[in-house]
Protein backbone atom coordinates (compact mmCIF):
# COMPACT_ATOMS: atom_id res chain seq x y z
CA UNK A 1 0.00 0.00 0.00
CA UNK A 2 1.04 3.62 -0.49
CA UNK A 3 -0.10 6.46 1.76
CA UNK A 4 -1.85 9.22 -0.24
CA UNK A 5 0.39 11.95 1.15
CA UNK A 6 0.31 13.81 -2.18
CA UNK A 7 -3.26 12.91 -3.10
CA UNK A 8 -5.01 15.38 -5.39
CA UNK A 9 -7.32 15.41 -8.39
CA UNK A 10 -5.23 17.51 -10.76
CA UNK A 11 -6.25 15.89 -14.05
CA UNK A 12 -8.97 13.62 -15.40
CA UNK A 13 -8.07 10.16 -16.69
CA UNK A 14 -11.37 8.47 -15.78
CA UNK A 15 -15.01 9.62 -15.52
CA UNK A 16 -14.85 9.88 -11.73
CA UNK A 17 -12.12 12.55 -11.71
CA UNK A 18 -13.18 16.20 -11.76
CA UNK A 19 -10.34 18.66 -11.08
CA UNK A 20 -12.87 21.44 -10.49
CA UNK A 21 -14.08 19.74 -7.30
CA UNK A 22 -11.96 20.05 -4.16
CA UNK A 23 -10.08 17.02 -2.86
CA UNK A 24 -8.39 16.76 0.52
CA UNK A 25 -5.10 14.90 0.95
CA UNK A 26 -5.61 15.04 4.73
CA UNK A 27 -8.98 13.34 4.49
CA UNK A 28 -7.65 10.80 1.97
CA UNK A 29 -4.79 9.90 4.34
CA UNK A 30 -7.23 9.38 7.24
CA UNK A 31 -9.42 7.09 5.13
CA UNK A 32 -6.40 5.20 3.81
CA UNK A 33 -5.01 4.65 7.32
CA UNK A 34 -8.32 3.23 8.45
CA UNK A 35 -8.25 0.84 5.48
CA UNK A 36 -4.67 -0.20 6.28
CA UNK A 37 -5.47 -0.67 9.96
CA UNK A 38 -8.57 -2.69 9.05
CA UNK A 39 -6.37 -5.19 7.20
CA UNK A 40 -4.07 -5.43 10.20
CA UNK A 41 -7.00 -5.98 12.57
CA UNK A 42 -8.09 -8.84 10.31
CA UNK A 43 -4.66 -10.44 10.70
CA UNK A 44 -3.01 -9.42 7.44
CA UNK A 45 0.50 -8.08 6.93
CA UNK A 46 0.70 -4.69 5.22
CA UNK A 47 3.88 -3.53 3.51
CA UNK A 48 4.17 0.12 2.53
CA UNK A 49 5.99 1.96 -0.23
CA UNK A 50 7.10 5.58 0.21
CA UNK A 51 4.84 8.01 -1.67
CA UNK A 52 6.48 10.36 -4.16
CA UNK A 53 5.67 14.02 -4.84
CA UNK A 54 4.08 14.69 -8.20
CA UNK A 55 2.37 11.29 -8.28
CA UNK A 56 -1.05 11.89 -6.70
CA UNK A 57 -2.43 8.51 -7.85
CA UNK A 58 0.42 6.43 -6.42
CA UNK A 59 -1.96 5.51 -3.60
CA UNK A 60 -3.62 3.10 -6.04
CA UNK A 61 -1.00 0.41 -5.56
CA UNK A 62 -3.06 -2.32 -7.22
CA UNK A 63 -2.14 -0.86 -10.60
CA UNK A 64 1.60 -1.37 -10.16
CA UNK A 65 2.20 -5.12 -9.94
CA UNK A 66 0.76 -8.62 -10.16
CA UNK A 67 2.37 -11.25 -7.93
CA UNK A 68 1.55 -14.96 -8.15
CA UNK A 69 3.72 -17.66 -6.55
CA UNK A 70 6.43 -15.07 -6.01
CA UNK A 71 6.67 -14.13 -9.69
CA UNK A 72 6.19 -10.44 -10.32
CA UNK A 73 4.84 -8.80 -13.45
CA UNK A 74 5.22 -5.04 -13.17
CA UNK A 75 3.08 -2.41 -14.81
CA UNK A 76 3.13 -0.03 -17.73
CA UNK A 77 0.55 2.74 -17.54
CA UNK A 78 -1.56 4.10 -20.36
CA UNK A 79 -1.84 7.61 -18.89
CA UNK A 80 1.44 9.56 -18.97
CA UNK A 81 0.52 11.18 -15.64
CA UNK A 82 1.01 7.81 -13.90
CA UNK A 83 3.90 6.37 -15.93
CA UNK A 84 6.60 7.14 -13.35
CA UNK A 85 4.86 5.06 -10.67
CA UNK A 86 5.95 1.81 -12.31
CA UNK A 87 9.67 2.39 -11.67
CA UNK A 88 9.15 3.19 -7.98
CA UNK A 89 7.29 -0.07 -7.49
CA UNK A 90 9.90 -2.00 -9.51
CA UNK A 91 12.58 -0.71 -7.15
CA UNK A 92 10.48 -1.67 -4.14
CA UNK A 93 10.27 -5.26 -5.36
CA UNK A 94 14.01 -5.45 -6.04
CA UNK A 95 14.84 -3.95 -2.63
CA UNK A 96 12.57 -6.47 -0.92
CA UNK A 97 14.16 -9.52 -2.48
CA UNK A 98 11.89 -10.29 -5.42
CA UNK A 99 14.22 -11.63 -8.10
CA UNK A 100 11.72 -13.17 -10.53
CA UNK A 101 10.51 -9.80 -11.80
CA UNK A 102 9.53 -8.81 -15.33
CA UNK A 103 8.54 -5.36 -16.55
CA UNK A 104 5.96 -5.57 -19.34
CA UNK A 105 6.40 -4.52 -22.94
CA UNK A 106 2.65 -4.01 -23.36
CA UNK A 107 0.40 -1.59 -21.48
CA UNK A 108 -0.63 -3.47 -18.37
CA UNK A 109 -2.24 -1.86 -15.33
CA UNK A 110 -1.64 -4.89 -13.12
CA UNK A 111 -4.30 -5.87 -10.57
CA UNK A 112 -6.46 -3.08 -11.88
CA UNK A 113 -7.14 -5.44 -14.78
CA UNK A 114 -5.88 -8.81 -13.46
CA UNK A 115 -7.82 -10.89 -10.90
CA UNK A 116 -6.39 -14.22 -9.72
CA UNK A 117 -9.02 -16.88 -8.94
CA UNK A 118 -6.62 -19.55 -7.69
CA UNK A 119 -6.70 -21.34 -11.05
CA UNK A 120 -7.25 -18.67 -13.69
CA UNK A 121 -6.15 -15.10 -14.16
CA UNK A 122 -9.15 -13.05 -15.26
CA UNK A 123 -7.84 -10.22 -17.44
CA UNK A 124 -9.72 -7.06 -18.37
CA UNK A 125 -9.30 -4.92 -21.46
CA UNK A 126 -11.23 -2.20 -23.23
CA UNK A 127 -9.95 1.00 -21.64
CA UNK A 128 -6.52 0.57 -20.04
CA UNK A 129 -4.69 -2.75 -20.40
CA UNK A 130 -3.80 -3.84 -23.95
CA UNK A 131 -5.28 -7.16 -25.11
CA UNK A 132 -1.74 -8.28 -26.01
CA UNK A 133 -0.77 -7.84 -22.35
CA UNK A 134 -2.95 -10.84 -21.50
CA UNK A 135 -0.69 -13.19 -23.48
CA UNK A 136 2.34 -11.53 -21.90
CA UNK A 137 0.92 -12.14 -18.43
CA UNK A 138 0.33 -15.80 -19.23
CA UNK A 139 3.90 -16.20 -20.45
CA UNK A 140 5.50 -14.36 -17.51
CA UNK A 141 3.34 -15.66 -14.68
CA UNK A 142 2.81 -19.16 -16.08
CA UNK A 143 -0.93 -19.25 -15.37
CA UNK A 144 -3.91 -19.60 -17.73
CA UNK A 145 -5.52 -16.29 -18.66
CA UNK A 146 -9.14 -15.57 -19.58
CA UNK A 147 -9.76 -12.28 -21.39
CA UNK A 148 -12.81 -10.15 -20.51
CA UNK A 149 -13.88 -7.01 -22.36
CA UNK A 150 -15.11 -3.98 -20.43
CA UNK A 151 -17.60 -1.69 -22.20
CA UNK A 152 -18.60 1.04 -19.72
CA UNK A 153 -16.00 3.82 -19.27
CA UNK A 154 -17.15 4.33 -15.66
CA UNK A 155 -15.83 0.83 -14.97
CA UNK A 156 -12.54 1.26 -16.77
CA UNK A 157 -10.59 -1.36 -14.82
CA UNK A 158 -11.65 -4.92 -14.11
CA UNK A 159 -11.33 -4.27 -10.37
CA UNK A 160 -14.18 -1.75 -10.53
CA UNK A 161 -16.53 -4.40 -11.93
CA UNK A 162 -15.40 -7.75 -10.47
CA UNK A 163 -13.64 -9.18 -7.44
CA UNK A 164 -12.78 -12.66 -6.21
CA UNK A 165 -14.63 -13.65 -3.06
CA UNK A 166 -12.74 -16.89 -2.52
CA UNK A 167 -9.92 -18.46 -4.50
CA UNK A 168 -10.32 -21.99 -5.80
CA UNK A 169 -8.90 -24.91 -3.82
CA UNK A 170 -8.43 -28.58 -4.70
CA UNK A 171 -11.97 -29.25 -3.50
CA UNK A 172 -13.86 -26.00 -4.08
CA UNK A 173 -14.32 -23.69 -7.08
CA UNK A 174 -13.55 -19.98 -6.98
CA UNK A 175 -16.33 -17.59 -6.00
CA UNK A 176 -16.64 -14.13 -7.54
CA UNK A 177 -18.92 -11.11 -7.59
CA UNK A 178 -19.30 -8.92 -10.67
CA UNK A 179 -21.39 -6.23 -12.31
CA UNK A 180 -22.90 -7.68 -15.50
CA UNK A 181 -23.48 -4.37 -17.32
CA UNK A 182 -19.75 -3.58 -17.29
CA UNK A 183 -18.95 -6.48 -19.66
CA UNK A 184 -19.47 -7.22 -23.33
CA UNK A 185 -22.10 -9.82 -24.20
CA UNK A 186 -19.51 -12.48 -24.96
CA UNK A 187 -17.52 -11.80 -21.80
CA UNK A 188 -20.68 -11.98 -19.73
CA UNK A 189 -21.44 -15.41 -21.19
CA UNK A 190 -17.91 -16.50 -20.26
CA UNK A 191 -18.36 -15.30 -16.68
CA UNK A 192 -21.69 -17.06 -16.31
CA UNK A 193 -20.20 -20.25 -17.68
CA UNK A 194 -17.14 -20.11 -15.40
CA UNK A 195 -18.97 -18.91 -12.28
CA UNK A 196 -22.61 -20.05 -12.33
CA UNK A 197 -22.99 -19.28 -8.61
CA UNK A 198 -21.49 -15.77 -8.76
CA UNK A 199 -22.99 -12.80 -6.95
CA UNK A 200 -24.27 -10.47 -9.68
CA UNK A 201 -24.16 -6.87 -8.52
CA UNK A 202 -26.72 -4.13 -9.15
CA UNK A 203 -26.25 -0.64 -10.59
CA UNK A 204 -26.27 0.80 -7.07
CA UNK A 205 -23.60 -1.68 -5.93
CA UNK A 206 -21.32 -0.68 -8.79
CA UNK A 207 -21.86 3.08 -8.55
CA UNK A 208 -20.56 3.22 -4.98
CA UNK A 209 -17.51 1.12 -5.96
CA UNK A 210 -18.88 -1.92 -4.15
CA UNK A 211 -17.08 -4.20 -6.62
CA UNK A 212 -13.75 -2.56 -5.78
CA UNK A 213 -13.57 -4.79 -2.73
CA UNK A 214 -10.95 -7.04 -1.14
CA UNK A 215 -11.82 -10.50 0.21
CA UNK A 216 -9.61 -12.90 2.15
CA UNK A 217 -12.10 -15.72 1.67
CA UNK A 218 -14.08 -14.79 4.76
CA UNK A 219 -13.90 -11.06 5.41
CA UNK A 220 -14.86 -8.71 2.58
CA UNK A 221 -13.64 -5.11 2.87
CA UNK A 222 -15.93 -2.83 0.87
CA UNK A 223 -17.18 0.77 0.81
CA UNK A 224 -19.53 1.84 3.57
CA UNK A 225 -22.28 2.65 1.05
CA UNK A 226 -22.34 -0.94 -0.31
CA UNK A 227 -24.66 -2.30 2.38
CA UNK A 228 -27.05 -4.04 -0.04
CA UNK A 229 -24.15 -5.94 -1.58
CA UNK A 230 -22.79 -6.63 1.90
CA UNK A 231 -26.12 -8.12 2.96
CA UNK A 232 -26.09 -10.50 0.00
CA UNK A 233 -22.52 -11.51 0.78
CA UNK A 234 -23.46 -12.15 4.41
CA UNK A 235 -26.18 -14.51 3.19
CA UNK A 236 -23.38 -16.46 1.45
CA UNK A 237 -21.43 -16.73 4.71
CA UNK A 238 -19.00 -13.83 4.24
CA UNK A 239 -18.33 -11.10 6.79
CA UNK A 240 -18.71 -7.62 5.27
CA UNK A 241 -16.30 -5.05 6.71
CA UNK A 242 -17.15 -1.47 5.76
CA UNK A 243 -14.72 1.40 5.23
CA UNK A 244 -15.18 5.01 4.11
CA UNK A 245 -13.36 5.68 0.82
CA UNK A 246 -15.41 8.71 -0.27
CA UNK A 247 -12.37 10.97 -0.74
CA UNK A 248 -10.35 8.37 -2.62
CA UNK A 249 -13.35 7.69 -4.86
CA UNK A 250 -12.98 11.24 -6.22
CA UNK A 251 -9.98 9.87 -8.14
CA UNK A 252 -11.80 6.70 -9.17
CA UNK A 253 -10.45 4.42 -6.45
CA UNK A 254 -11.61 2.26 -3.57
CA UNK A 255 -10.32 -0.47 -1.23
CA UNK A 256 -8.99 -2.73 -3.99
CA UNK A 257 -7.37 0.11 -5.94
CA UNK A 258 -5.36 0.92 -2.80
CA UNK A 259 -4.28 -2.69 -2.29
CA UNK A 260 -1.80 -4.84 -4.16
CA UNK A 261 -2.17 -8.45 -3.02
CA UNK A 262 1.18 -10.21 -2.80
CA UNK A 263 0.96 -13.97 -3.21
CA UNK A 264 4.37 -15.33 -2.27
Automatic annotation (TrEMBL):
Source organism, top-level taxon: Bacteria
Gene Ontology BP annotations: L-arginine deiminase pathway
Keywords of this entry: Transferase
Phylogenetic lineage: Bacteria, Bacillati, Actinomycetota, Actinomycetes, Pseudonocardiales
rRNA-binding keyword on record: no
Molecular-function GO term, any one: transferase activity
Protein name: Amidinotransferase
Source organism: Amycolatopsis albispora
Record keyword Transferase present: yes
Amino acid sequence: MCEPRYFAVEYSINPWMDPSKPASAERAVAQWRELRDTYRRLGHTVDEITPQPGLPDMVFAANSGTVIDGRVLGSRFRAPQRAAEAEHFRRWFVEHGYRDLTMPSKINEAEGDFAWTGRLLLAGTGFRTDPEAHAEAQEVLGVPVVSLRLIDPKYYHLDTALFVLAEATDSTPAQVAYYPAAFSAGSLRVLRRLFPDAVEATDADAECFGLNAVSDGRNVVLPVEATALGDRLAERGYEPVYVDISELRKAGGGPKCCTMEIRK
